[in-house]
Design a protein that fits this description.
The protein is built from 13 helices and 18 strands. α6 runs parallel beside α7. α3 links the parallel β7 and β8. It has 395 residues and is of the alpha/beta class. It is globular, with a radius of gyration of 20 Å.
Length: 395
Amino acid sequence: MSDAATPLFHGLFLDPQRASAREGWLHVKDGRIEALLDAPPAGGPPAVELDGWVIPGLIDAHVHLCLDGGTDPGARLRGETPTDTVVRALGHLRAHLRAGITTLRDLGGPDGFALDLARAVDDGRVAGPRVIASGRNITMTGGHAHATGIEADGPDAVRRAARSQLKAGAQVVKFMATGGVMTPGVRAGAEALTEAELRAGIEEAHKAGRRTAAHAQGLAGIKNALRAGIDTLEHGAFDGWDDEALARMTDPQRPVWLVPTLAAPDGILSGEGRVPAWAVAKTRPIAERHKANALEAFRAGARVAAGTDAGTPLNPHGGLARELELLAAIGLPLDAVLRAATSEAAAALDLEGEAGCLTAGARADLVVLGADPTRDVGAYRQVRAVVQAGRLLTD
């Protein structure tokens, strides 16, 4: 993508916190929002017209850049060279950016590739959204995603594993609190890392000022992660919440964000007959419960951030619009869906005031939609233009 810098944009700006649009002139300086003005500044430069509804750049809070989103991503990854993997991941970055995603969080892959991609984007060497990367997941021996993660047993080993990823440059540290769907032979939702193991790793991340995420599907593992101090729960309960879990998630002094990733089971089930049968068999019994739990948590006051799990079967990169449609379909109001992909996702990633908003000081990341997303969830499929750090991007 090529780009053009401009200090002034004119359009209909939609603030996620107010869910109301207003005509304005967005003044940008050094890639950041200087002010959103009601009138063009006297003697200012000509404004670039943004034709549509202008919202903050979208955020996908859960992706896997090194997975291809085909019918069997694990097999594809095992059968290719590291160079092939990185070249594909560069294409995934571009797909996200074209879809209006200007920030994403990569939650696990092989060999620290996502950490290198994050640095390359930051340095301007490759085009793509800002990447908040976890590096390698931390899992128990034989646990979920053990093929690309770090296997660690006992609090001291988990602590060392967390330190190793922080040393490598991880901006978030991810732990496997339960089993998962996409690892053959592992029971999805089964309790994995213990509360003590999780606490040791989380403490290390928090000491370094980093957020933490937990792959957490079964209730016992979810509560282990919550008691240990996790910041975001990925996926959610397969077997229902209980009062303790909901109370810990909605504690106003220390909220925990839920990232439901409804697109992941949706993709797997859509590929029955093409996706590995064992993945379909593990997904089918829990898909409806997964949806119900996401809505129940939201209604109980949990903060929801949008993430796709992009890269899993038939769950392509740049597909955040599908996740937002699924959140709307289960009953989230459209203003909440907008916040899930902007301000709430930014807060979950510790980027509050930096991304997902139109306030002064935030990075000037914008996406122009062809319809009002607070009235039509299909608006996220109508990306007309993307602005990254004050630069209007063109293919």
